[in-house]
Design goal:
With about 400 residues, the protein is mainly alpha-helical. The protein has 2 domains: about 5-185, Up-down Bundle (Growth Hormone, Chain: A), CATH 1.20.1250.20; about 195-395, Growth Hormone, Chain: A (Up-down Bundle), CATH 1.20.1250. The protein contains 14 helices and no strands. The protein has helices at about 5-35, 40-55, 55-65, 70-85, 90-120, 125-155, 155-175, 200-215, 220-230, 240-260, 265-290, 295-325, 330-360, 365-395.
Length: about 400
């Protein structure tokens, strides 16, 4: 890993720690300190999430034109200002406005970071992104643990410190990113001249859609699993925490190794197909955990989380490879923004969708979800090869 990649990894770790603080404490700050209801916070965050979705392609296009590092610095400063503005929130309307600003800055930053990874990582960009995903999980865990101190004190001062530290983390990240050498925008090749800002790349959008469906799996452990355990199994509720920790540790230790298996579009297709099978098997195991004694349910749940996490890791490795490889080099920012927007739509819809499919429908819902994952995985190959042929056709033309 070169010096620029190590610097970016340090920056990502700092940001992830701040995000861990935010994820663990922002909702409590809004309810316990500001006085908003849980419903108000949920509605506000949903509106903010939808608002931020469109920022990725726009900010990513700016990165392609003016340089990924420079635009990344701008988005980090915007994230710091937006996050710090949470301290000014005194009602629902202001909360929605500030949360939307946070969402826009976050989505834009994510797209630009993808473009920067593509430039710094070169041929190994998908592996670098896998490494950064492990780093991100470590940082979020550290941040969440730190947020526990603020939650323990449960005062406005404690929550305010948490918000300020999160905002400061973006400024510190910007100082680190500034040390990365400038990455000048790439000129278009003959193929790239056919991929202008206004062109609708249907094959790439189709790939984005397939991976968007698969991205529903991210909400399985955070949304569906806790509800499933307390409403449909005999397992104790406290099991949720160690199961989520198991998922985090497996990602930290295995994501980089999975990335080493992927060096081409064909490899990305293969590992995604395998991941879909594992995700489907995990759904079957979650279904089975709804029967039997507490000990049996706990054992099956542990196995289900392990299998599901292996599928999650494979899905991420395949996603990283195809999202980079199927995008033109000069437009990585815009394409990563489009890819992030597509998956973001499904991630935003996942809590409500999984609550209906897996919790309200019971065991049959898990079987249905497994079938959805399996179908999406089988569709990956034909759709990705279509996108690959489309790119090759542009080159030949």
């Amino acid at each position: 890993m070169n010096g620029a990649a190590r610097t970016l990894a340090c920056a990502v770790l700092i940001t992830a720690i701040g995000n861990g603080l935010y994820l663990a404490g922002a909702v409590l700050f809004s309810t316990r300190s500001v006085g908003l209801s849980g419903t108000d916070v949920g509605i506000g965050l949903t509106i903010a999430g939808v608002t931020g979705l469109g920022a990725g392609p726009v900010v990513g296009h700016l990165a392609d034109r003016f340089g990924a590092r420079e635009i990344y610095l701008v988005t980090l400063i915007a994230e710091a200002l937006a996050t710090g503005s949470l301290l000014l929130v005194h009602g629902f309307v202001v909360f929605v406005v500030v949360a939307a600003a946070v969402g826009i800055a976050e989505q834009g930053s994510r797209a630009v970071r993808g473009a920067l990874i593509a430039r710094i990582g070169g041929a190994a960009r998908a592996r670098l992104r896998g490494y950064l995903r492990s780093v991100t999980n470590i940082g979020v865990a550290i941040g969440a643990a730190g947020a526990g101190l603020a939650i323990r004190f449960d005062t406005r001062t404690a929550y305010s410190v948490l918000i300020l530290v999160d905002a400061a983390s973006f400024l510190l990240t910007a100082l680190v990113v500034a040390r990365i050498p400038r990455q000048p925008p790439l000129c278009r090749t003959d193929r790239d001249r056919s991929v202008g800002p206004g062109r609708l790349d249907l094959p790439f959008l189709a790939v984005t859609g397939v991976y968007g469906v698969l991205s529903l799996q991210y909400a399985v452990l955070t949304v569906a699993l806790p509800l499933w355990i307390v409403t449909h199994t005999a397992a104790p509720a406290w099991l949720v925490s160690p199961l989520l920790l198991t998922n985090t540790l497996l990602v930290v230790f295995l994501q980089v190794r999975a990335g080493r298996r992927v060096g081409s579009i064909a490899d990305g297709i293969t590992i995604t197909r395998q991941a879909a099978v594992l995700l489907a098997l995990g759904c079957v195991l979650f279904c089975v955990s709804g029967t039997g004694s507490p000990v049996f349910a706990a054992f099956v749940l542990i196995l289900a989380v392990a299998v599901h996490t292996l599928g999650e890791i494979g899905h991420a490795a395949g996603e990283f490879e195809l999202s980079f490889a199927l995008a033109p080099d000069h437009a990585q920012g815009r394409y990563q923004g489009i890819f992030g927007m597509g998956t973001g739509v499904f991630v935003a819809a996942a809590p409500a969708l999984l609550s209906v499919v897996c919790i309200d429908s019971g065991q049959a819902g898990w079987v249905l979800l497994g079938g959805i994952f399996l179908t999406a995985g089988l569709c990956t190959g034909p759709i990705a090869r279509w996108a690959q042929r489309s790119a090759a056709h542009l080159v030949d033309a």
